[in-house]
Amino acid sequence: MILDKIGNYKLYAGITERLAKGFEFIINNDLVAMASGTYDIEDKAIFAIVQEYDTKEEKDCVLEGHTKYIDIQYIIEGSELMGVTTKRDQKVVTSDLDKDYTFYEGETAYIKLTEGMFTVFFPDDLHRPSVQDGKSSKVKKVVVKVQI
Q1: How confident is the model over 87-96, as a mean pLDDT?
Q2: Residues 94, 69, 145, 76: what is their CA dihedral angle, to the nearest 10 degrees?
Q3: pLDDT score, position 118
Q4: pLDDT band for position 98 (50/70/90)?
């Protein structure tokens, strides 16, 4: 897992060419003005999902992981807590490998993401996004899906 501010994205863009293209999408677009929806970057290999939502109580947020895609999650506006942990022996709740998600039961440590921060989640990184920090608040975020 990587946690940083977007100003440092070049430190990680060299990991893969596709990851670099994902960061370029974040840097080169007016995400504040961009409407919610899915945006193609490179066929099905890289795409972005712009979303707006209210953060929720921890009990209403799911712990998830992916096997086919790396996630870049960038906070455009607002802030949220995100639970993070490494994939170990967590109990699988449900899985859809075609849609590239598995939901788990398990404990996490929490990090706070604010405007201008991003995370990168690899297949061994589980995450519980959208958790409120004390009270519910509005968040605008882009999740860039980068095929492995």
Answers
A1: 96
A2: 70
A3: 98
A4: very high
CA distance 70 to 35: 23
CA proximity to 117, closest of 89, 144, 78, 84 = 78
**Using an 8 Å Cβ cutoff, are 53 and 117 in contact?**
no
Instruction: Check residue 87 and report its DSSP letter.
Output: -
* Residue 53: closest CA among 45, 43, 61: 61
Q: Is 10 helix (H, G, I), strand (E, B) or coil?
A: helix
CB contact set of 4 (below 8 Å; sequence gap of 6+):
11, 12, 117, 118
pTM: 0.95
Angle, vertex CA 42, rays to CA 100 and CA 29, nearest 5: 105
Tokens representing 51?
A: 């979303």
Res. 49 pLDDT band, cuts 50 70 90: very high
